[in-house]
Specification:
Elements: H1 2-21, H2 49-74, H3 82-97, H4 102-109, H5 113-130
Helix pairs in contact: 1-2, 1-5, 2-5, 3-4, 3-5, 4-5
């Protein structure tokens, strides 16, 4: 589990920094039900040619990482209960994207810290399985 968590951390670090390099906000935008909102494609205006070339290279990396993030985030599900799916996505977002502590994530979801840890483990396994980042022993 530690190696899997490390792999996910490496992926999320690369993804979030790629978002910043292309001028997107660090945290992906989500709806009230924690569905992802598509990224903005607004260009930054009249800039020097070198900056545009660097931004284009960064954009390719971002597009690739964003597609992977969407694939992983979409797999965070509960098979029968959509309210648990929403809660699981919210906990994942709060902990790994926003960086809130387990205590704060529990307070924001009105659940116990133990349940946050359980849901977080399930969400992490679902996310990393979709991206083939899981390390088996």
């Amino acid at each position: 589990m530690d190696r899997t968590r490390h792999n996910m951390g490496v992926f999320l670090s690369a993804y979030l920094s790629a978002r910043c390099r292309v001028g997107q906000p660090r945290e992906p935008k989500v709806t009230a039900s924690f569905s992802l909102i598509p990224t903005s494609t607004v260009d930054s205006g009249h800039e020097a040619e070198q900056i545009l070339i660097q931004q284009e290279e960064a954009r390719e990396e971002f597009d690739y990482l964003h597609k992977l993030f969407i694939r992983g985030y979409a797999t965070i599900q509960h098979p029968f209960k959509p309210d648990i799916t929403e809660r699981r996505k919210k906990i994942f977002y709060d902990r790994f994207i926003s960086g809130y502590s387990v205590y704060v994530a529990a307070q924001r979801s009105n659940i116990s810290e133990d349940l946050v840890s359980q849901e977080l483990s399930k969400a992490m396994i679902q996310f990393t399985s979709a991206l083939e980042l899981v390390i088996f022993r």
